[in-house]
Amino acid sequence: MMSQFTSISPNQRLVLPYTRVKREVLLPNNLIGTVLVRVGQQVNPNTVIASGNRTTQHHVVNCAAELGLRRTAKLTDVLMVKLGDVVKQGEVLAGQQLQRGKRSFAPVDGQVVAIEDGTLIIRQIIDRVDLLAGMRGVVTDVRPGRGIEIEGSGALLQGVWGNNRRAVGSLRLEPERGIEMPPNEWRGTIMVTSNPVTAVTLVRMEQLRLAGLIAPSMDSTLLEVALQLEQAILLTEGFGQMSMHNVLQSRLARFEKRYATVHAVSPRSVVTRHPEVLIAVGATDEEVPLSESLASPEVSVGVAVRVIREPYHGQIGKIIKVGRHSSALSNGLSVPAAVVKFSNGRIEPIPMTNLEVFT
Amino acid sequence: MTQQTSILAADFGSIYTRVLLIDVVDGEYRFIARSEVRTTAGYPSFDVQLGLRQGIHHIERVTGRTLIDAFGNIITPEGENRVGVDHFLTTASEGEPLRAVVVGLIAGVSIESGLRATEGAYVQVLDTLSLHDGHTYQEKLNLLLNHKPNLILMTGGLEGGAKQPILEMIKLVRQSLNLLPETERPIVIYAGNSALVQATKTDLGELTTLLIADNVRPSIDTEDLDSAQLQIAFAFDRLKMTQGRGYAEVGAMSSVGLLPTAHSYRIVTDYLGRSRKRNLKNVVAVDVGSSSSVLASYYNGDNHSTIRADIGLGRSAIQIVERMPIDSIRRWIPFAVAEADVRNYALNKTLQPATIPLTRKDLYLEYALLRAGIEHLLASQRPEWQHTPPHLDWIIGAGSALAGTGNYGLSSMLLLDAVQPSGVSQLYTDPNGLIPAIGALAYIVPEAVVQLLDGNNLEHLGTSISLDQAPRPDQKVLKIIIDVEGQEITHTMNGGELFVHSLSPGKVATVHALALGSNRIGGKQQVKFQAQGSFAGLIFDTRGRPISLSTDFAKRSSQLVNWLAQASHIEPQEFPHFELQPVEERNMTTLTELRNSQMSQLARHASTEWVGDATYHGWSGSIFEGDVAQTDLKRLFKE
Q: What would the CATH number be for the domain defined by B7-92?
């Protein structure tokens, strides 16, 4: 008889009033980059930590053919550039004379990256990209040519989705009666709303020139727009019409007007980080552990959990029993579940995977 | 007599890590213990070893054996007092697939063989480049560079054929490698004309990891894929090892490195299809995971496997919606739902891939995505089955979505709905993760594969008896006589029904099914056979092939509710009238539309009231990450 054991831990979300975080900030890997800071250096959100040239195309210039050379080896005698040279469009690459006669010209602005068999390859340079630190902290590691690792501290709140943008600004709560203060006071801020994002929210965000938006949810019809906007959008719950859960709401309210960084990461199949908000708060004298080291709580009776799927979405309760075997659900499924007692006294078996533990 | 060999096998899925202990008992290989824990490849630990050790500790606890030493390493070989195991085997489907470009000479010949060689591993073919594909040399070079593949599969040239075109191809690959930083160069597999192996080694060997395989197309009429497929599996292993997240350490402990889970499905269907003992002709295995899915089928002697890294019921859920017509999903949903709400559901599943539907509506949404996903897999591998329902002896379902429902009737119905076989089929699931382990076992203990597969280690869900074509719902179409230990039960079914008769494991029944009128069961008027008991029992399906869903929404809703109730033994719960009324579709908003419709009004408001210079402290911009996908880059940069 085979022994079976299933141990399914619930989901985790970090909501920490003060913690240390380590984050990688990297250039896209199609950039040829240079890191501009060193280990131990203090950086601010707008410190340029690396820069790189964006390239998209390589151009093959058959100089030997253009010059009518019978032997490709002869090209070296008439080359006007060497490997690594940066060239301008129209610049002479090879020829008997610079000003006249048969010559080969650079088709684009770029860099000579290969010379072989009578041909030159020019890597076209489109533009230059500066990479900002995006958070305050100390550089703890340098990834040559790519970026850095920064260690910083502050309050940390994780969400579930972002539109691949970052924002830095002070947190402002959306007033219940709508925005009444002079609009220019909202510029560059990160607005926190407890309501689902609507088309009007997005228009207003652009119009007010907000730096970012933290909201509970958004309809999928707005997804494409959200991905095109320059401002950062971070969702704390997901897609649809969900409201923000109380713990996050109260934490964010506590930090109003604080300076915050929103890393609105869009999740991919290999989740490297969560969308999150890092808020600058006064440092404490106490040594605090790194946030990630807190992210593996043991699940046991008494642990406070929150349900992340309907019909109990957002409800908070305590685990009163962790079953070793599958539990039958009312919809016919039978899966590993924990028995949860909700704050209203109701007791239900909830699949372990539908629970979230706050750390 | 089987030599005593103990085996610990681990399979790393996107969500779950499954660990199995296999050992010899009474001269035969058997499962001893199994554990299932969360995979720890992602945030926050980024180390698969944590989940692996947790899973092994559970096995140590229940078996009383010691398998890991004080440093966290798996003890091999097995020592005295049953400490350790002889082999540790690892497979993985977690993570991103190999992103490959297939380079060859002729599209319909070597390229086609190259593409077939990629079946059976987690390979996403980004592009193919051939001699006369219409691209200039420069365009080919840019395609190779801009796709950023992590694998280039080079094919081409018949044995004894022309060399010059292949040398051109080698030059192209060499130049592309030279233009990339060393750390970003793809692995190259050469599977072309063997006369150019040395030239390939000379040109490419020092630039990147070069793997040599036998020519996939040695002659125009022959194809030899085994060697190339093995090298692709090896490339998968190499790539995983360099990705960090603990795979290098795990792979170093493994007797076979890290193999792609999908490879195992092909091995299993091939074995079952060829096995004379079972006398099976046609076998299908389908594994729907969170991020990817595998379909392997042995049909009339032809074994195929398809892996789709874009079909899954967790992290890839939204991709099912994006790839399938919405009505191919909604046809399985018995209440009115807007496309945007199906998208909302799929997006949330993508964000929280392990979650399980709790409400009945969510259950329908979840399994509508599952059916549509499998239908898409089948249509891509066996398009002819859409017109001619396949006669399948065995259908095996794997992955949490199919094997983890905990409701055998429901799992059976989902397999029938998605695969739609005709005739008599045995339905199985693999809840223990046997198949991934078998793929790795095949390399080192082949006799274990035979013994484990022959040893009833898959879960027998039920026996299905399905009518072909489209039986009429208002007519009697199937008469059933079931004899269990002399007790005879007779039942007659109309078209469009599902009838489940319980026959517990261990029991045997004589089943006699007679198709009435012009109807047929797998092409036959009647079938009579001995049925073995199983968890769901005997499932009689007169819904037709393809399954005939009513065009009247209220009737279709009723059909779906009743079929679910019949199969899963839960109370039928019809949806009220208002839930069947057409819902308003909400269209996808574009940025231009949004600005045009809303901005003018707000802008007028703004132009009159926005005064003074604001102190602009904040900023927003793109997130840069090293491994941002090409499509994301378009979004990151303003275009």
A: 3.10.20
